[in-house]
Amino acid sequence: xxxxxxxxxxxxxxxxxxxxxxxxxxxxxxxxxxxxxxxxxxxxxxxxxxxxxxxxxxxxxxxxxxxxxxx
Length: 71
Hints:
Elements: H1 9-24, H2 34-43, H3 50-67
């Protein structure tokens, strides 16, 4: 059975920042700000009511999937 490796989120962010630096040819611009980017992620707060909106969106999507017939 094939599966992906389980990677801690912090390590995944660091890896993606390395790829961004490589792809955008920015030396270590993104990776040098790793701690600030990670702290911004931890400090991020959800909007009030976003949980209920996401549940409603999920129900709407499920309704769409089960009731639309593709040709």
